[in-house]
Prior knowledge:
The protein is of the alpha+beta class. The protein is about 25% helix and about 30% strand.
Amino acid sequence: MKNLILVATVTAALIATTGLGHASTLDQNNAFGNGNANGSFEWQQQVTAGLSGQLAGITLYDIYGETATVSIGIGDAFTNSFVFSESVSLNGGSSGWNPGSTFIDTSAANIILTAGERFVIDESGASLPYSIDFANSSYTGGDLYTKLGANSPVDFDTVHGNGSLPFQTYMDTDPTPTPEPSSLLLLLTGLSAGVLLLRRRSEMLGPAPLVSSLLRFGIFARCSSTKSTPSAVRVSAELSARVM
Length: 244
């Protein structure tokens, strides 16, 4: 019974280490927004990636707090080909000068970008106006496009002057899987429990049963030429041979 508990504990700890921990970095920052635009339109903001890596998420800003469809497409606006699309309840704010912010996790879409590559953030399907920065379009990484129904898309910057979608993008520059601290803690806990169980077993039954337990778990290989318990010298030799 104790052996089963040991195996289950260590196995669970090892499985837990497959959890991923990613640290995202703020890439594009265009958070300022002080106006609003018709929510019945579809809006697409061109964005230029400043870092290479996986697009971990975006933050959008809004005044009224409506529900909209937020999508991500690769390439220049205007595009209807999206690699990410999700219905999002946007947090509202108190005014155009103080919009609410909503973070949208895009990591599951595994959007890999290189520095300088263009992509678009698309907002559509809302019944209320969006938060749009009309007065000061400080973002130089791409234009804002708008489209109503079946009409052709229009470059808002060209037709109406300055304008941009308030947003922030976050990039995971090292998307290699890394164990989370909690997973490492669980692994250490499982291994410690295993060591304690083996130590108690050895104290109760002596050193020979301890070696047998290790052999049963596959930590040491039983020598096929004899059924006797391997000596410390032979165990050491086998371990050295496995390492080499």
